[in-house]
């Protein structure tokens, strides 16, 4: 709803910016990427060696891009389209400039490694119109049939400010928020680790909702209910109530839910531009080489089978029946694919890693967008003087409605509904038109004088990520007690800790990260996997720019006892 930062933290321009620097693995990926020494090299005798990269989402494309720069030959396999959950679509018959972000659509400034690649390919960002953000002209909060119009938090009834204060107090008292936020800004690794180690041990078995209930600040059920329906930052968070509170703390510590920006023209441009990009600094390959040129323009098709074969090689079978064997492979797809759509050799991973993948909990998510003739919501109501329609948070079926425009008089887009978990499952059986009709009915009850339908100029586009065959969910979200599983998956790139016959296949992707649902996690785990592959081929980082594996023992995630 508003900033997650408690009042106790006084930010100034002189303070260092927050970044996704921990708390689990406080490594400076942004500094690693921008260091003039580069992120590592391999022996010349290994140049041109093939490495399989399975999955052409952001993590896979970044891993392939960086491996190519080192002189390796990435072989990218992609079952659907480059981009993964960075999926931007248009509207049939409408201006190509009108787009809808079916997956990732808003990115916090704390995603500093992600921003490196956004800048690298020359993309621009702009403020995203979250509820009550400066980029949002107005917000309507509609609960239990009662609507409140607001341009700032001060315009809402006192109970909403009470809920905001309760959340700030809850974070401060139960999670040392100010201390951790300050330590992360200052990149104070010992202090981060000290605070987080205590919290992981204390809170791994606690749900988000249980954390709220344990706080005197949230002793009121009404306050907890409003908080769940309206939330903070991007809207209601009751769909996250069953999840581990550690997942939520990672978001608020890094301000991942604040100050969001969207990518102008659509987020899928990022992996697509990296696919086509010709690096200015590249080893072994001639200048002008790109991932696209190494693949004759198209990635290899879907992987159908993975085996560990003689010589501890990873053997990949694709949908055409082609079989290739590799000394190293990076898997960036949704981990459940290894349990279902891809026939896998049990020898690929230790049994504890298989267990961790089986226990991974995924969140469902649905969106529906419509194109409209213009941003009519900026018209003023003759009676009230207010905007005709606003960014809307509600307990009705739509939950969150976002208004996206490129200026007055130009065609625009409405995200009629963005929902998660049970709210997403409610849409699953409905066709796009049926979904739109229900959404328009709900919004019509909030805005009885507004005829949204008359402004629609094209068919709706929709997605339910749980119904997408290569995703089966929107993103990972750990349940209480899952910390140990997540640690196994995140640290998998440190393969000197694994038996010798379990090395060579590296996991990456945002659900392997500590910050699933944020593209930054995809970037960080891609870089971990690149470090692992580099090490596999006998390479190393420059001593002046140690990589995540070089510093692992100093900053390794907290290890909880197994007994």
Rg over CA atoms: 24 Å
Uncertain parts: 1-13
The averaged pLDDT comes out at: 94
Hey, roughly how much beta strand do the residues contain? Answer: 15-25%
Query: Taking strands numbered 1, 2, ... along the chain, how are they ordered across the largest sheet?
Result: 7-6-16-17-18-15-19
Give the number of helices.
17
Shape: globular
Q: How does the major sheet shape up?
A: 7 strands, mixed
Estimated structural class: alpha/beta
Topology:
Layout: H1 29-34, E1 50-54, H2 58-69, E2 73-77, E3 88-90, E4 99-101, H3 112-120, E5 125-127, E6 139-143, E7 146-150, H4 158-175, H5 177-185, H6 189-203, H7 208-213, H8 221-230, H9 245-253, E8 261-263, H10 269-276, H11 291-294, E9 303-309, E10 313-318, E11 323-326, E12 329-331, E13 343-344, H12 351-359, E14 362-363, E15 365-372, E16 391-394, E17 400-404, E18 412-420, H13 421-425, H14 432-446, E19 461-464, E20 475-476, H15 483-490, E21 505-507, H16 519-536, H17 552-555
Parallel strand pairs: 1-2, 1-12, 6-16, 9-13, 12-21
Antiparallel strand pairs: 3-4, 5-8, 6-7, 9-10, 10-11, 14-20, 15-18, 15-19, 16-17, 17-18
Helix pairs in contact: 2-10, 2-16, 4-8, 5-6, 12-15
Structure, explained:
The protein is of the alpha/beta class and 563 residues long. It contains 17 helices and 21 strands. The chain has helices at 29-34, 58-69, 112-120, 158-175, 177-185, 189-203, 208-213, 221-230, 245-253, 269-276, 291-294, 351-359, 421-425, 432-446, 483-490, 519-536, 552-555; strands at residues 50-54, 73-77, 88-90, 99-101, 125-127, 139-143, 146-150, 261-263, 303-309, 313-318, 323-326, 329-331, 343-344, 362-363, 365-372, 391-394, 400-404, 412-420, 461-464, 475-476, 505-507. The strands form six sheets. The protein has a seven-stranded mixed sheet with strand order 7-6-16-17-18-15-19, with helices on both faces. A four-stranded parallel sheet has the order 2-1-12-21, covered by helices on one side. The protein has a four-stranded mixed sheet with strand order 11-10-9-13, with no helix packed on it. β17 and β18 (412-420) form a beta hairpin. It is globular and about 75 Å long. The two termini are 41 Å apart. Residues 1-13 have low confidence and may be disordered.
């Amino acid at each position: 709803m508003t900033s997650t930062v408690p009042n106790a933290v006084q930010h100034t321009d002189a303070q260092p910016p927050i970044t996704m620097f921990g708390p689990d693995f406080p490594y400076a990926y942004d500094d690693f990427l921008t260091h003039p020494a580069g992120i590592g090299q391999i022996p010349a005798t290994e140049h041109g060696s093939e490495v399989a990269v399975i999955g052409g989402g952001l993590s896979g494309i970044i891993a392939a891009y960086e491996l190519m720069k080192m002189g390796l030959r990435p072989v990218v396999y992609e079952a659907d389209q480059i981009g993964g959950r960075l999926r931007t679509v248009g509207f049939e018959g409408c201006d190509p400039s009108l787009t809808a972000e079916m997956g990732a659509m808003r990115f916090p400034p704390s995603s500093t490694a992600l921003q490196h690649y956004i800048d690298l390919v020359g993309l621009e960002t702009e403020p995203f119109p979250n509820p009550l953000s400066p980029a949002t002209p107005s917000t309507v909060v509609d609960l239990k049939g009662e609507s409140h119009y607001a341009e700032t938090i001060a315009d809402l009834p006192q109970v909403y400010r009470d809920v905001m204060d309760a959340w700030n107090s809850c974070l401060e008292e139960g999670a040392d928020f100010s201390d951790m936020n300050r330590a992360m800004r200052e990149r104070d690794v010992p202090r981060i680790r000290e605070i987080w180690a205590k919290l992981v041990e204390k809170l791994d078995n606690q749900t988000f909702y249980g954390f709220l209930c344990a706080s005197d600040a949230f002793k009121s059920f009404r306050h907890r209910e409003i908080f769940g329906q309206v939330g903070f930052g991007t809207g209601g968070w009751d769909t996250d109530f069953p999840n581990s509170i550690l997942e939520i703390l990672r978001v608020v510590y890094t301000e991942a839910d604040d100050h969001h920006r969207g990518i102008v023209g659509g987020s899928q441009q990022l992996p697509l531009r990296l696919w086509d990009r010709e690096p200015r600094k590249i080893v072994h390959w001639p200048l002008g080489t790109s991932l696209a040129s190494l693949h004759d323009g198209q990635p290899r098709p879907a992987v159908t089978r993975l085996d560990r074969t003689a010589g501890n090689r990873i053997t990949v079978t694709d949908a055409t029946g082609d079989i290739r064997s590799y000394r190293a492979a990076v898997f960036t797809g949704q981990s459940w694919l290894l349990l279902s759509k891809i026939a896998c050799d049990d020898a690929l991973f230790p049994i504890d890693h298989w267990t961790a993948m089986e226990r991974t909990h995924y969140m469902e998510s649905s969106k529906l967008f419509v194109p409209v003739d213009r941003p009519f919501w900026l018209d003023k109501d003759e009676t009230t003087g207010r905007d005709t329609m606003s960014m809307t948070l509600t307990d009705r079926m739509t939950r969150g409605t976002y208004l996206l425009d490129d200026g007055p008089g130009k065609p625009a887009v409405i995200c009629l509904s963005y929902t998660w978990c049970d709210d997403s499952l409610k849409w699953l059986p409905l066709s796009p038109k049926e979904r739109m009709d229900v959404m328009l009915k709900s919004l019509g009850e909030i805005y009885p004088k507004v005829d949204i339908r008359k402004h629609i100029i094209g068919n709706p586009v929709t997605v339910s990520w749980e119904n997408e065959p290569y995703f089966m969910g929107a993103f990972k979200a750990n349940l209480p007690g899952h910390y140990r599983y997540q640690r196994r998956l995140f640290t998998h790139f440190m393969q000197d800790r694994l038996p010798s016959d379990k090395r060579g296949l590296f996991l990456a992707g945002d659900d392997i990260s500590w910050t699933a649902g944020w593209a930054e996690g995809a970037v960080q785990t891609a870089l971990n996997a690149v470090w692992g592959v580099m090490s596999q081929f006998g390479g190393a980082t420059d001593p002046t720019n140690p990589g995540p594996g070089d510093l692992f023992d100093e900053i390794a995630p907290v290890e909880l006892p197994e007994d």
